[in-house]
Amino acid sequence: MSRLTRRRFIGTAAGAATLAAFGRPAFAQDRTRIRHFWWGNPDRDERTFRVIEIFNQKHPDIEVVGETLGFADYFTRLTTQIAGGNMADAIQMGYGVMFEYIQRGAILPLDDHVGSTLDLTQIDESALQAGTVDGKLYALSIGANSHMAMYNTRLYEEAGITSGDGFDPYGWTYDDVKRIGVAVKEATGVAGTDDNTADYQNFSDFVGQKGAELYKADGTYGVTQEIVEEYWTIWKDIRDAGATPPGPASAGLVGAEMAQWGIITGQSATSYAWSNQLVGAQELMQDTLGAAMYPNTPEMIPGSIVQPSQFICLSRDTVDAQATTTYMDAFVNDPEMTAVLGLERGIPANSQVREALVPTLEGAQALSVEFFDNIQGKTMALPPPPPSGANEVEQTFERIAVGVLLDQVSIADAAADFLRQAEAILRRAS
Q1: Of 77, 314, 427, 429, which residue is most buried, by most CB within 10 angstroms?
Q2: Quick one: three-class SS letters along 99-114?
Q3: Integer CA distances (angstroms), 174 to 209, 254, 306, 313, 364, in order
Q4: To the nearest 5 percent, what fractions of the chain are helix, strand and coil?
């Protein structure tokens, strides 16, 4: 069987060409062809093309072809496809932006297919609720995850930082991040931590830790000037202590793909991401990764959430909803396909799939399950999906935070500017 080489894959995906799984031969003309579009990384893409091949072998009446881009380009391409009326049949979607795409009519409800092409009897109720908006099911969870700090265990050990000895991975504070980051830098010459000044994921956790909410029930922004200033001041203090790379270096990595993360390139000993990305990150490293929660304030009010890492959804432009939902069903239920997918997209929502996977797990996948076990009771309740405009608010936060990293604007002025723009964006989108 021919394999999809990395060079061939990148060149094809960059051109947005439809990719057949691993060069399978042409199918009969009467076979229904559907497209699956996702954002990925090398490990995820390899796994997904393999399950597409498995599905195509099992379903002689359906041909699935895959399309993939990196996260930074995915939603830009999806927006273009929506405007052109040529979205893929099945699309990957995130909880943070799902509501916006539902409002735009880009995603179709799945309720009419439940009990026929979709079997949801083994799917966790919490996962179904997360994919339900206004009483209709729009999305199937393809893995649960939470925010995770990934750290290089070798560099931590060289600095004398070990779990249980001044380091609690499930209860450390921003002061600990600074202390540990400085210790790692002094012992190894590597910055101890990425700088999260422009990291909206970390900021969202911090908002919850302060007892606030990003978005109020009426769709307005729920963050105060004091919270924004405090968050950026905390990271400035960590940066000024020498625990992070210099501000300009961190500014250049905002929105970077996984291969460019500080922990992957050796620029830092700690990077922050979604827990489902642990497997892909470990694939790119020789040193062993450790897992911790995002840091907290001394009050230890939960700020992280457990949510679907991604969904698979039925697009408005599907050429055959029955064929597409048949594929979506297999993607979350078929034992052979889910064994290949593993935990790369997060903890599966199907209880039988989880039970089948656990005995086979080792390395980063086993650590992912251990991490989920250890964060139980330490996260806050999943809030409703963000309102329309939330994605633009996040992009605005990142852009203004870059100015903070470059010392182009004071923290107070930057915070005021961000809040003015966030409120205007949400008003315009409502």
Answers
A1: 314
A2: HHHHHCCCEECCHHHE
A3: 12, 20, 21, 37, 25
A4: 50, 15, 35
Give the C-alpha separation, 108 to 316, whole Å: 6
Which neighbouring-strand residues pair with 33?
Answer: 63
CA–CA distance, 51 with 58 (Å, rounded to integer): 11
**Residue 125 · residue 326 · CB < 8 Å:** no
The residues with which 292 forms a beta bridge, in sequence order, are 149
Site of tokens 């979205």: 87
Q: How far apart (Å, rounded) are the C-alpha atoms in residues 100 and 79? A: 12
- Structural domains in the chain plus CATH codes: 6-144+308-365 (3.40.190.10), 147-304+389-429 (3.40.190.10)
- Kind and range of the H or E run holding 179: helix 174-188
User: Does pLDDT of 334 surpass 60?
Assistant: yes
**pLDDT at residue 29 in the model:** 57
pLDDT of 330 strictly over 90: yes
pLDDT digits over 124-152, tens only?
A: 888 898 899 999 999 999 998 899 999 99
Beta-sheet strands, E only, within 90-175: 90-93, 107-108, 132-133, 136-137, 140-141, 144-145, 147-152
CA-to-CA dists, residue 102 to 98, 348, 425, angstroms: 6, 23, 18
Q: What is the pTM of this model?
A: 0.75
Estimate to the nearest angstrom the gap between the alpha carbon of 308 and the chain centroid. Answer: 9
What's the mean per-residue pLDDT of the chain?
91
d(CA 114, CA 321): 12
pLDDT tens string 27-76? 445 799 999 999 999 999 999 999 999 999 999 999 999 999 999 899 99
The pLDDT of residue 4 is above 50: no
Name the residue among 304, 354, 358, 350 with its Cα closest to residue 331. Answer: 350
Check: CB of residue 406 under 8 Å from CB of residue 254: no
| Coil, helix or strand at residue 268 | strand
